[in-house]
Design a protein that fits this description.
2 copies of one chain form a homodimer.
Chain A (H helix, E strand, L loop, with lengths): L11 H8 L1 H6 L7 H11 L4 E3 H11 L5 H14 L2 E5 L5 E5 L5 E6 L5 E5 L3 H14 L2 E2 L5 E5 L1 H9 L1
Parallel strand pairs in A: 4-7
Antiparallel strand pairs in A: 1-3, 2-3, 4-5
Chain A binds a DNA duplex (30 and 30 nucleotides) through α4 and α5.
Amino acid sequence: MRATGSPSEWRPEVDRQWAGIPDRLRARGLRWTPQRRILVEVLSGTDGHVTGAELVERCKALDPDTIPSTVYRTLDVLEDLGVVRHSHGADGREEFHVLPVEEHAHLYCRVCSGSWELGADDPVVAAAVVAVRDGHGFAIDVPHLTLTGVCAACRAKEVDA
Amino acid sequence: MRATGSPSEWRPEVDRQWAGIPDRLRARGLRWTPQRRILVEVLSGTDGHVTGAELVERCKALDPDTIPSTVYRTLDVLEDLGVVRHSHGADGREEFHVLPVEEHAHLYCRVCSGSWELGADDPVVAAAVVAVRDGHGFAIDVPHLTLTGVCAACRAKEVDA
DNA sequence: CTCGGTATCGCAACATGTTGCATCTGCAGT
DNA sequence: ACTGCAGATGCAACATGTTGCGATACCGAG
């Protein structure tokens, strides 16, 4: 029974995650609504990071009647489901990561506003996580982490000035 | 000429820092205004962390005509002067540190909402700073750093559940 | 297929900052 | 003391979320 009547192209790993969401909601006594469908549609076409405001915009593109508070509340629900994760960027704004993505932290340069990812498997990150856990009993949420500072390029320039 | 005509008690280390602010502003072509005097007065009586909103409230207590945007703009100026530093708490809200305080990062538990300080001289922090600098050429702003995660106590409880 | 409970929605008000602009004022120079 | 002007202020509008509440509609049971 493979590909029986499947319309457009079928990307198993990706689509299966989104297809299961309605039932995963109902299994928790939650509901599958048109508004949630819109947001999930937007998320399924999103790669990497997005701000809350960006998601609201993209939902409005699909449905001009989109209400921001509904989007934010749905994002909370989806975070409980493990579909997205949020962190706060260097400016304090919300930033959402669509899963599955490799867990990663961010480096943000306050001089040039540039941003880099730091994989959770980066030796530096891994060492810090273990050190904080052993030294303080504290388990860090790596993906929630943004390190603010000055990047190599900007540091070089500052020396000149 | 010691304590000549000094009214109330004189706390050299503390008061001198605040007393120098007007001239430090003028030296940069900036101005010393009543609104700034109010904010500096509030800051001089503040210990540790405060949110922006809290500072606005305290200024309003001294002068009901206080305008929030003026407070925020003055905080920017004072940050340039090195009088305060800001970071973003786990919820993304602004958090100001009144100097001089030892540089420190924060641990924030997303389960119990507890918060702990982590000194810049903490071996874990120091090691991470050096590692990121050597590994990525990136200089971390330690005081801007908030690590979100789960504290030891809450981790113990989660195992039970 | 209808019904009822309750999760969700839409909306309005609020919280916390940020920004543009016309007006005002601190203060350096005379 | 007076004056000019760049730096500050006040105000209003906006950006990004959050929250309370009454109305709506999803969906499991009968």
